[in-house]
Amino acid sequence: MKLLTGLLVCSLVLGVSSDGWLTFIPEAAQGTWDMLRAYRDMREANYIGADKYFHARGNYDATQRGPGGAWAAKVIR
Q1: What's the rounded Cα separation, in Å, for the pair 34 and 11?
Q2: What is the pLDDT of residues 27-73, one digit of tens each?
Q3: Whose CB has fewer CB within 10 Å in the chain, the N or C terminal residue?
Q4: Which ranges of the chain would DSSP assign to H, the alpha helix?
């Protein structure tokens, strides 16, 4: 658990752009929400073989948020 927490913190620190924490954290939260929304849509569709589409859509939506969203998409995958 400590290793996971350490990796998460290091990943967060290295992922912060010059804009700083004030924009990175909300972007990461919104990116996480985009990934969750795509996952829920995938579960609702319940169609075999459609998971690649929903994963790609979630990653795309999250990365459009900015560096924080891109970080969230990379961590969640």
Answers
A1: 20
A2: 889 999 999 999 999 999 988 888 899 999 999 999 998 888 888 88
A3: N
A4: 2-15, 21-45, 51-63, 67-76
- The C-alpha atoms of residue 21 and residue 41 are separated, in whole angstroms, by 30
pLDDT score, position 56? 92
State the amino acid at position 48 in one-letter form. I
Q: What SS3 class is residue 57?
A: helix
Is residue 38 within 8 Å of 69, Cβ to Cβ?
no
Measured CA to CA in angstroms, residue 4 lies from 10, 17, 66 at distances of: 10, 22, 24
